[in-house]
Structures are given as structure tokens and as C-alpha cells.
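Run log, item B.
One chain of 443 residues. Sequence copied directly from the ordering sheet:
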Amino acid sequence: MTFPPLLLRDRSLLLILGLALIVRFAAAFVFDPPMISDDRDYHAIALSLLNGGGFSLDGNLTAYRLPGYPLFLTAIYTAAGVSPLPVRLCQALLDVLSCFMVFLLGRRLLGERPARIAAALYAVFPLCILYVTTLMSETVFTALLLLFLLLLPDRPEQRGRLVWAGIAAGCAVLFRTTALILPLAVAVIPGLSGRSLPSRVRPLVLIAGTMALVILPWLARNEAVFGRFSLTSNAGVNFWMGNHHAASGSYSFPPVNPLADITDDFERSDLGFRLGRAFWLEEPEHGLFVTAKKFAHLFAVDYWMIMVQRATPDWHPTARAVDTYRHFPVGWLASVQLPVMLIILLALPGFFLLPSGQRPEWSSLMLVSLLWIGAHLVIYGGARYRVPLHPLFILAAVQGWLLLTHRTFVLSRPRLVLVSVVTLILLAGWSMESWILFFGGSF
């Protein structure tokens, strides 16, 4: 059923989408956070493109940032002028579309009424609303991820849908390199169950090949400009940030950073990879400890989003991050984080205690979620990188609630142990985080 007839028939869905639009438009006008992170580079590159300077930072051609979001900004700046408000309004509309796609995915996985509940939860989910207000790529990327999952076919013979899913995945890669994992999701679509190996490989090749064609012009540009057939020159930097002896598990460099003296972006990236690999070879036990810290940061309170909404243009980091966050009202922190905690805890049984008959339909969402988390455990963690998974967690949380209330979950010992252990780890991490935040210590 196409979009307009569905809305005309389903008034409750129309009300949910209307609510999503109202709260996002309100946030777009109320919040005007300063640019203090990656958004500064995105904005600067967009201005360079707008003024004919090419894909450049500080007058120098660059591949340090991917082209997707700067091009998105450039298109809006060209049409509506250089102002963050039109960007926020466009992102609000995109996120309403994401809300609708949450409903469509939910209808496929859960049925009509639970799908509306999932869409309603997404409509009022605080972090999704707040990210609309920033000049960051999360909102656009989340829409592309949901579109990719919607386009995944039920059967490998549906080649047209595979091609469109590949296009969506390719566009997503131009926003986030971690989207390179997306074609792997085709390996678990229900229609491949019991198929021969060639039948499993062909859809993967088709979707990966289509994705490659989408990103090929950017790769060719980097080959022509820098002599590197590569997506980005910051991959090694990100790897080094999460894999060194003083790594916090999030965005951090050691006190003496050997990358700081390298001026060439790709040479800096190469050195980051070498140093990160050396760290793991020399200190594998320490590497595992750092990986645990990455997991903790990935599921921590989204301090960056909480902070940026209250920061001023002259903001600068304090000596200890905890000193910044202690000035925030407890209600502000709780209103952002408590919904995240509840959704994640309910998502665990929704993902892992499914009856066997429902698992195939959920397999692509589960695989994408696990691969996404795994990719950031390789690089470094941060609550901002969890944002694209929130709609998937919401869908799984609705499923988890249905399983628990209807007592239809599967109580196999390995799955129950897995859910229990992860739940305890998350609760312990959040409790420790709260203790540090309100009673002392540092991050």
C-alpha cells in the first residue's frame, strides 16, 4: 500500500506522524546548539563547495570527512541560504519519514497495532528529537539504514529490491564507513534458508556490487587527488584513538600523540593503523580491557548531546568531563537517558528470546545491530554511534514487551543466560556511571 492511501485509512498513524513532526519542528526552533565537533568540518566543507573551493578544509582538498553529509548541507544551503534552521527543518522531515519506516518495519515484524506503538515511541524518543537539531549526520544516516532494511527482499529472486537496497547501502556508506557491513545482512534474509551456497552468494554479490557502484565516484576522486583508492583518510586515526595504552574507550589520544606531527592525512591514517595493531600485538590483555570500556561508552549516557544543547559558542572542554555534566539538572539527564535504558533492557528479550518461528524475520535487524556494535568495539565507542540503532531497539523493545506479557518467550538456558548477563552488565555500568556523576570520580 502506498503512502497516501495508508495514511487516509489509518488515522491513528497520521496522528503519530503529526506528533512526530510537531515535536521535531518545535525542537528545531527552540534548540540552536553551537558547532563544536564534526559539525564544524561538515559546515566548512559545505561552504567550500558552495563557494567553488571544492571538497576542502582550510583551503586544502581533503578526504578526512566522507562526502554524504557535507553534500546534504550544500544542497540545503544552496536552496535556502547558509543557516542551520533550514537544515534542522529538513532533518525533522527526514526523521518523521524514519518514524513512518519504523511503522512499516514493525508491521512486517509485529503486526499493525504493535507497529503503531513502536512508531509512537519513536515519535517522542528524546534523543532522536534532539539529534534533529544538530548539524551531524545521525538523522540522515538513520533514515538510510531504515530504508535499507525495508528494501531487503524476502526472497533472493527479487533482484530489483536487492539493487535498491544496494543503492541505499551505498548512500549510507558515504555518510558512515561502518555501513560497509550492511550487505552482510542479505545473508540472513528468510528466503535464503536451506539454499545452496551459490544461491546465498549471488544476492550478496549483487547488493555489494550495487553499493560499490554508488561509492565508486568518491573512490575515484580520492585516487585522482591523493593517489589512494580509499573512502577516507581518518580511518586509521579513529582506530588509533580506540587502541592505545591510554585509551579511554571513547574519543581519546595518548598524552604524547605521534600522529600530531604528521601533516599528510593518509600518512597519519597509515601510522594510526600501524600503532593500533602494534598495541594489540604487544598488549592483547590490555586491548580486551579497552574493548570492555568501548562497550561501556557505547551504551553510556549521551553526554555529548546533553551538553551541546546547553553549550555556548565559546564552549571549551573542562579538565574533567564530569565537572561539565554535574552542572546539568538531574531531570534533564534523566529525561534523555531513562527512555534509552528502558528501551534497551526490553530489546534484549525482544531480540534473543524469540520463538523459533519468528527468528528468521528478525534476523537482519539482529545481525545489523550486532555487526554495528562489533564495528565500534574495533574502533572506539561513544553513545552518539548508538543512535542509528535506536529505531531497531524500539522495535525489539515492543517485541520484548509482547513476549514477556504474553509469556511466549523461549526460556532456553543459553539465551536466558545471555540476556541475564548483558542486562546485569548494562545495569552495573549505568549504576557506576551515576555514582561517578553524582558522588565523585572522573570519566
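Observations after the first pass:
- The chain is about 65% helix and 0% strand.
- The CA atoms of residues 115 and 143 lie 17 Å apart.
Flagged for discussion on Thursday.
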